[in-house]
Every structure is written in C-alpha cells, then in structure tokens.
Specification:
The protein is of the alpha+beta class. The protein has a domain at 21-47. It contains one helix and three strands. It has one helix at 43-51; strands spanning 21-23, 26-31, 34-38. It has a three-stranded antiparallel sheet with strand order 1-2-3. A hairpin with a 2-residue loop joins strand 2 and strand 3. 6% of the residues are buried.
Length: 52
C-alpha cells in the first residue's frame, strides 16, 4: 500500500487559486517555480476555456 505524500510548501493550493487555466485536458495554476497542473479537467471546463 502506498501512502500519498502531503504537498510541500511550494505546492499551490488549487482550491485557493484565484485564476486557473485550462490547457487541453489539464488545469494549471502558476506556482513559485513554474506551473502546477492536474488532469483531467471536466468537459465543461474545456468548453468554457475554448469559448474565451
């Protein structure tokens, strides 16, 4: 059994992010050293991003 590691201090909290970008199947937020991303985002998010 693998126990997930807690995020370190440099990992942004996506729930507190004021701006999240959709990039294909990925959602990304800016971090101190680049970008922090996760997938999948929802079809609704991808469609909203494509409309802008």
């Amino acid at each position: 059994m693998r126990i997930p590691r807690p995020p370190d201090a440099s990992t942004p909290d996506p729930y507190k992010a004021k701006t999240v970008f959709a990039c294909g199947d990925w959602s990304v937020v800016a971090s101190d050293d680049g970008w922090f991303g996760w997938t999948p985002n929802s079809e609704e998010e991808r469609n909203a991003a494509a409309a802008e």
